Each structure stands twice: as C-alpha cells, then as structure tokens.
C-alpha cells in the first residue's frame, strides 16, 4: 500500500467569519478500499451558515466514503458529494452553501496510488510534478461551462455579461452536478467536458515526488497591491519538494497571510514520497521586503521581552501599558502565522452512476462565492497558470497518457 502524507489548514484572514473547512484522512471503505482523502470546502452565507455548510459537506463526504459498499472510486466520490448536497440543502435551505474540492487516492492501485477527483464550484485542485504545476479541475462558471462543453469560443465567453456566475454549488438546490473530470491531458491543447469525464473515470497513477493541492479560491485571488495571487507560483513549487508536508502547508499559508487576503484561505496538501525531497526552510519563498518585516517583528518582540525583565517591579498601571503593547505586537506576528484545523453516521443511499451531464443553468449565489477562471474574467493576469484551454506547454505536459476510451 502506498505511504503518502497529508496536511490540512485554514485561516480566517481579514474576514469576520471563518467559513472555509479543510480536512484529510486515510479511510478504509466498507468495500475494503484504502483511500487517502483530501477535502477543501469554501462556505458562504455569513454568520455561522457558511462555516456550517462547509463543515457539513466535509464530514458527510468523509462519512459516506467510509460506509460506501461501492468499489468504483469515481462513483463513491459522486455519491458522497450528492449526499452532502442533500444534507446541506435540507438543513440550511440555501442560507448556507459551499464549494467542494475532493481528492481521493486509491492506495492499493500502483506503487504510489491512483488519483481521482471530484469538484463543485470554484475551489481548485492542482498537481505539481517535476518542477511544474497544472490545474486538474475548472471553476464551474457559466462561461467555463459553455467553453468546455464546446458551445462557445473563449472569445465569446469572455464577452458574456454574467460569465463569472457560478453554475454549481453545494446547498443551493436539492440536486447538484458533480464534476469528476481531469481537464488536462498530455499532448492535448484542449480537453472538453466529455473527454475530461472519461479521463476522470480512469484516474491517474501518481509518481514518486508528486504533490497534490486542494485549495480555496482565497489563496489565488489577485492581490491589489502587486496584481499577483496571494499565494505565488514559485512558493508552491518551492515547497512542493519539501520532505515534510505539514511544514510545507504551514509555510504556504504564512505567505498568503502575510499579504492579508480579503477572503478566508484553506488548503489540503498531499505528498508522494521521494528521495529527492529535502527540507525547505519556512520563509525561503519570502521576498526581501517580507523577510525584512519578519526580522523587524522578531527584533521588536525581543526588545519587549528584555524590557519586561527590567520592569518586574513597576506599578500595576505600567504593567497594563506593557501588556497592551505586547498584545499589539502579537497581532503583527499573527499576520505571519497560520491556524491549524480540526479532523472529521450517515447511511449511504443508492444513487445513479456518474454520467457526463449537459451544461447547467446558471445559479445566482452569494456575491463572495461567484467563481472566476483566471485570464477569462479578471482584469489582471496572475502568475499562476490556469488558462487550461490555451497553455498546452504547461497544463498538459504533465499528465501521462493512459489508454482512456
């Protein structure tokens, strides 16, 4: 059985509520499959509704997978997400919704396992291999649905007034279309929905040194200060070859947190072992400006600690002033820190087998969850390559072609 390592984390960033949820687990299903599962869910709805939707989605998927008698991994994923959608819709009736990015690796298939994915909404799934990065899924926006269904050109889609409206979301309706597609294939400049579905059914054998990342869109929104994503491509690739998945995941969250994103951020990360992996120091991907800021913060904290020793005999009022100063400094330090997340009974119900479905009608949802596909709807070009339909040299190079009919 493949021995993989995984880590999940989430951060509130500058939002009032933490509505993201991320988790990972090795699950033995009722049918005897050993699956490494990663999940990221990005909730919406405000107050506690968004977080509840994301948490319900995550836990329902995990529980359903464990109880599933199925032996076909794509079917398990589709049915588990469908079940989660029914529960979220039943309990919240649209007041709380969520995306879902689900990764499952069959640990008994091949030396490193076979990868399968399922997604709803605009949370991302990436593969990092041999120093390059590829996005495996797509944002479920109206424009993307038409483009990948072959019903509209990229140029036509870019002109759509509501092209960035989400078409799929957990908890909006009693039914949801789950996408198991791999929108990348070696040697192909474009992978349409039907082809992506067939590749997704077959799955992909992982290789030594591969890194899989599921993440919420908050990490990749464009930072208005530098017009780049809050998490940079070079940082992803640098820490993708660390030998400690938890250290790597925390480092990525710290980079993003230091840039103060406006949305919650979350990730689930998976490492396939390799002799080429080695320790990557946290901060190795920081810019000189960020390193200077971190150094100054450390210096100030040390000065405060020294002053504390000299003022032990000060009055109560002086101690209160010092405590307020120390608290303010801690808040600065927390901007360069990430928050650790928790871990995860539902009876599986019969559902139809996954099938390739027609383009969905657009669903208007909470404004902060409208999905974007970079280079299609955003005014600024980020560093991270996600233009699946026009970047074959990056996005299709990595997938080893297996015979998929």
Summarize the structure in short.
The protein is of the alpha+beta class and 405 residues long.
What do you see in this structure?
- It contains ten helices and 14 strands.
- With 405 residues, the chain is α+β, with helices and mostly antiparallel strands.
- It has two domains: 340 residues, PPM-type phosphatase domain (Phosphatase 2c, domain 1), CATH 3.60.40; 47 residues.
- The longest helix is centred in the last third of the chain and has 23 residues.
- The C terminus is likely disordered.
> Looking at the structure, what is the overall shape?
globular
Under the CATH scheme, the architecture of the largest domain is: 4-Layer Sandwich
Distance between the termini: 27 Å
Major β-sheet annotation = 6 strands, antiparallel
- How much β-strand is present in the residues? 15-25%
- Global Rg: 22 Å
- Derived from helix and strand composition plus strand pairing, the structural class reads alpha+beta
Mean pLDDT: 80
H/E element string? EEEHHEEEEEHHHEEEEHHEHHEH
Q: How many distinct helices?
A: 10
CATH topology of the largest domain: Phosphatase 2c, domain 1
Helicity level, as a percent range?
Answer: 25-40%
CATH class of the largest domain: Alpha Beta
CATH superfamily of the largest domain: PPM-type phosphatase domain
Could you list the spans in which at least 5 consecutive residues all have pLDDT below 50?
312-351, 357-405
Tally of strands: 14
- What spatial order of strands do you see in the largest sheet? 8-7-10-13-1-14
